[in-house]
């Protein structure tokens, strides 16, 4: 009799559980999600901002092909639908997109696996008689970016220092989104890092902002903040790292020269956000 009753009792128990919080029915099985492991971490840790260096139609074709991809693409002038700007999602956030390439940030590599990428339609830079000049970003495009970036940051708990430029994670290859991207304005809206002006002035300590500082000491600070700094780097590679940092945090002067203001900004950022901590479990 007990053998006959047990399946019925079990079925009734399972039926009761199905209505409980944390019990999820699937086709052919049921999940109990009420006990979650402590030994876990979110897959997405980094938000990477890019520019396309191409028009929208060409960018859309490139980013939906087989070579490269990105999670989101924002036109220079996003079309409005019911008063809201339209953004193209090309890869679901749960999947990796091929946007970061060979990259490094805060001890982590393989950033395609741990990041979300946003491409902004922008022609990038051009060589002119005055040197390399970058194209500005359209205000409507930045207005569309803000709520998207905020949502991503909130969903994954992304820290300010892990909202980065493509140039930050690949300074030897990339310049995007360049010195005209409004990092400071976005930081004021909770998107990304920015140093406190008073602390920059404190660390500058009355020095001429453009006074030279030792290359090694500046690179040590940038390496602690998150940039890839290697002992065997050539002088050109060292300057590329500094230039990437300056385009992000000191866009008025991004010549790659190690100077007192760049050093003071790095020190203020380290004080505010702390030093290197791996953004994922992947290591070089």
Automatic annotation (TrEMBL):
Residues 32-178 form the N-acetylmuramoyl-L-alanine amidase domain. Keywords: Cell wall biogenesis/degradation, Hydrolase. It holds the Pfam family Amidase_2. GO terms for molecular function: N-acetylmuramoyl-L-alanine amidase activity. This is N-acetylmuramoyl-L-alanine amidase. Its EC number is 3.5.1.28. One of its GO terms (biological process) is cell wall organization. It is an enzyme of class 3 (hydrolase). GO terms for cellular component: outer membrane. SMART domains: Ami_2. Belongs to the N-acetylmuramoyl-L-alanine amidase 2 family. It catalyses: Hydrolyzes the link between N-acetylmuramoyl residues and L-amino acid residues in certain cell-wall glycopeptides. InterPro entries: Amidase/PGRP_sf (IPR036505), Amidase_domain (IPR002502), NAMLAA_amidase_2 (IPR051206), PGBD-like_sf (IPR036365), PGBDSf (IPR036366). It comes from the Bacteria.
């Amino acid at each position: 009799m007990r053998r006959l009753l047990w399946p019925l009792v079990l079925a009734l128990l399972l039926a009761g559980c199905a209505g409980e919080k944390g019990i999820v029915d699937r086709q052919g099985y049921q999940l109990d999600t009420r006990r979650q492991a402590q030994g876990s971490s979110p897959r997405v840790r980094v938000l990477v901002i890019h520019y396309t260096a191409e028009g929208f139609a060409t960018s859309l074709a490139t980013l939906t092909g087989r070579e490269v991809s990105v999670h989101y693409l924002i036109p220079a002038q996003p079309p409005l639908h019911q008063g809201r700007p339209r953004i193209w999602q090309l890869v679901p956030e749960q999947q990796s997109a091929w946007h970061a390439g060979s990259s490094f940030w805060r001890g982590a590599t393989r950033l395609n696996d741990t990041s979300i990428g946003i491409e902004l339609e922008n022609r990038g830079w051009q060589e002119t008689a005055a040197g390399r000049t970058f194209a500005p970003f359209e205000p409507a495009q930045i207005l569309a970016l803000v709520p998207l970036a905020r949502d991503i940051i909130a969903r994954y708990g992304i820290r300010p220092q892990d909202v980065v430029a493509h140039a930050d994670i690949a300074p030897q290859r990339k310049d995007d989104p360049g010195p005209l991207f409004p990092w400071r304005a976005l930081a004021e809206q909770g998107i990304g890092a920015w140093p406190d002006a008073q602390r920059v002035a404190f660390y500058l300590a009355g020095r001429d902002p453009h006074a030279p500082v030792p290359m090694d000491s500046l690179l040590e600070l940038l390496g602690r903040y998150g940039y890839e700094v290697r002992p065997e780097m050539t002088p050109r590679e060292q300057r590329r790292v500094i230039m990437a940092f300056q385009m992000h945090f000191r866009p008025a002067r991004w010549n790659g020269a190690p100077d007192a203001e760049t050093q003071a900004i790095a020190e203020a950022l380290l004080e505010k956000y702390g030093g290197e901590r791996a953004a994922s479990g992947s290591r070089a």
